[in-house]
Amino acid sequence: MKAATLVSGRAAGTAGNARHLPLAKPVAEIPTGKLVTLRRKAKTCRACPLWRDATQTVFGEGPASAKAMLIGEQPGLQEDQSGKPFVGPAGHLLDRALDEAGLDRDTLYLTNTVKHFKYEMRGNTKLHKRANASEQAACRMWLAAELLRVQPRVVIGLGAMAAQTLFGDAFRITRERGQWRELGEDVRGMATWHPSAVLRMPKPDQRHQAYAELVADLRDVVAVLADMA
């Protein structure tokens, strides 16, 4: 499998020190600092309009020394309210899949491509709405900063948005799910189903198969991490 393109981004405040990132899409300026500093800076991000209607920024969570980073798409309603990633129905499904695969969530860094909840009102209900290309691009600096700070050995894209951020717009989950790619020196990446996509599948047999594939892909993560140890 062809390696994904490595993109150079310039870390703010580090003149002349461009760093390579396992991202297929460009990042112009990357915030610097420890995770606690990045989280604080992201709280006041105004790079795109999504902050206006969101309750709060939903930044990533997990140890700075995590060997694996799981990247989702964008926060949902429960994440928007709590400020934590993967705590709604999709997060509960992910927790079950992680348990079955033998992965401890507390050892992973979990984040999203976009850090604010985007929605449209349907009556009194906030319905999830996909962030557009410019909103995704504006938020990419935070994902880049997380990647530079954590330096994971394994990067997993959950869903199409995260997968295309890592591997390019031509990537298709239905065609390339579960295939490992080299993302740089000693860094490997793969994309799999987003738990919310599993939940949205209309037929029980489709949901069962996709969930089984998600668990199988996460078990591959366990195996790859063991090989890297």
UniProtKB/TrEMBL annotation:
Keyword match Iron: yes
Keywords for the protein's UniProt record, in alphabetical order: 4Fe-4S, DNA damage, DNA repair, Hydrolase, Iron, Iron-sulfur, Metal-binding
UniProt keyword Manganese present: no
A Pfam match: UDG
Domain Uracil-DNA glycosylase-like: 59-219
InterPro entries, alphabetized: UDG_Type-4/5 (IPR051536), Ura-DNA_glyco_family4 (IPR005273), Uracil-DNA_glycosylase-like (IPR005122), Uracil-DNA_glycosylase-like_sf (IPR036895)
Alphabetical list of NCBIfam families matching this protein: UDG_fam4, UDG_fam_dom
Family matches, as PANTHER family: TYPE-4 URACIL-DNA GLYCOSYLASE (PTHR33693:SF9), TYPE-5 URACIL-DNA GLYCOSYLASE (PTHR33693)
Entry's family note: Belongs to the uracil-DNA glycosylase (UDG) superfamily. Type 4 (UDGa) family.
Protein name as catalogued: Type-4 uracil-DNA glycosylase
Organism per entry: Rhodanobacter ginsenosidimutans
